[in-house]
Specification:
Elements (H helix, E strand, L loop, with lengths): L2 H36 L3 H12 L1 H4 L1 H10 L2 H24 L5 H29 L5 H30 L3 H17 L18 H14 L1 H21 L2 H8 L4 H28 L2 H21 L3 H29 L5 H30 L3 H5 L1 H14 L2
Helix pairs in contact: 1-2, 1-6, 1-7, 1-8, 2-6, 4-6, 4-9, 4-15, 5-6, 5-8, 6-15, 7-12, 7-14, 9-10, 9-15, 10-15, 10-17, 12-14, 13-14, 13-17
Length: 395
């Protein structure tokens, strides 16, 4: 494929990823808001978020097999088309005043499955669309698109549209996904699996092959383990961040939204900065440094009472997370054969996704037992140990 075709293909993928993640951001705001109109039970409202996140753990390994078995461009096109139709069902339910919690749970789960398939396919498609030396730059743009859509623009815009009319964020999500599907139609046939013989293998055999490949590779197993550690430590304090912002910093609920937006800017900056860092330092050093930054910001947040200082620390924490995501996905792409890349990504995402709710539970328990600041501190020793492990095993 020529350099022009490479750039054109990646441009399509990037634009599609931006619109897909924008739709995810709309959903992240709109689904809980609809749930809150149906019930005031916090557990039932939280169930919508759980339904959206569970597919990453349950369907993640199977999504990896699918990404390795079929044309990745065709898969992204089909997934976004189906997700748009699912949003169409929600639109009809809202228009005819028929929404229910069970409908929200089912559609949230279906959309979460689609998200796990699309994001894995997009990560696995990047190496076929850019030159090897451009992986960090390309992944930085993909991760930045994810942060912009999922955190910076999508949720506040989704909430704004919901305030104007309940149906608007769902309609906007469906439209975004349809355009995203059209954008990747030009990639259909260009991202076929390189091992068609895998179609004759059993699905669970292929799942195990992916897990074994990660477990036997020193670097892949290390970054996967550390991703779970980082995810759990981050979820521990983020789960109670709203209470910290209100009770410790004395900020309003509206201020909490502003703080999240500022944090997202840090994540975008980190994603764009990762390429420059990896040009100057080995990947292992960059990842170890990212863990040290995360540990330091969490320790300082444990002590912080000044709002400006605390918000700055949250932005720096997000910056380190953005750096980690770009470098880790680039390493997976370089260390994995194309025929296994979907399953390697799935293994990584399953470990990271499964660790997040565990971290959130630990953070809630720590806050209940030792105060609202405690969750910031519990992950610090583990992150420092993880940085030492990264420095040793990722040389």
């Amino acid at each position: 494929m020529s350099a022009v075709a490479l750039r054109f293909g990646f441009g399509r993928l990037w634009a599609s990823s931006m619109l897909s993640n924008l739709s995810d951001g709309f959903r992240a705001a709109a689904f809980p808001l609809v749930a809150a109109t149906l019930t005031r039970d916090p557990m039932l409202v939280a169930g919508v978020t759980v339904a959206q996140e569970v597919p990453w753990v349950i369907a993640g390994p199977l999504a990896g097999v699918a990404v390795d078995r079929v044309d990745r461009g065709r898969l992204m096109w089909a997934v976004n088309t189906v997700r748009a139709l699912v949003f169409g069902v929600v639109v009809m339910a809202v228009v005819f005043d028929l929404p229910s919690l069970w409908l929200l749970y089912l559609t949230a789960f279906a959309l979460g499955v689609g998200e796990s398939l699309y994001d894995n396919a997009a990560q696995s498609a990047v190496p076929a669309l850019v030159d090897p030396e451009d992986l960090e730059r390309a992944n930085g743009r993909i991760v930045a698109a994810q942060v912009i859509g999922n955190e910076f623009v999508g949720p506040p815009l989704g909430a704004l549209l919901f305030g104007l009319a309940v149906v608007l964020p769902f309609g906007a999500s469906a439209f975004s996904l349809l355009i995203a599907a059209l954008l990747v139609m030009g990639l259909v046939g260009k991202l076929r699996p390189v091992d068609p013989s895998a179609l004759g293998q059993g699905i669970w055999r292929q799942v195990r092959e992916g897990f074994r490949f990660v477990a036997r590779d020193r670097k892949l197993s290390t970054i996967t383990l550390l991703a779970g550690l980082l995810s759990a430590a981050d979820a521990a304090w983020f789960a109670v961040l709203v209470l910290y912002v209100i009770e410790v910093l004395g900020t309003s609920e509206a201020g909490f939204g502003v703080i999240l937006a500022i944090g997202a800017v840090g994540g975008i900056t980190g994603a764009m900065l990762a390429n420059r860092l990896t040009q100057r330092m080995p990947d292992g050093v960059v990842l170890a440094g990212s863990l040290v930054i995360s540990a330091t910001t969490q320790f300082l947040l444990w002590t912080a009472s000044n709002t400006v200082f605390a918000v700055t620390l949250i932005a720096v924490s997000s910056l380190s997370f953005g750096i980690w995501n770009v470098v880790a996905v680039s390493m997976r792409q370089r260390l994995s054969p194309s025929r296994l890349l979907g399953r390697v990504n799935a293994t990584y995402n399953t470990v990271a996704g499964g660790a997040a709710p565990i971290g959130a539970i630990l953070g809630g328990v720590a806050a209940a037992q030792w105060g609202i600041r405690a969750p910031f501190l519990i992950g610090v020793p583990a992150l420092i140990a993880g940085a030492v492990l990264a420095a040793i095993r990722l040389r």
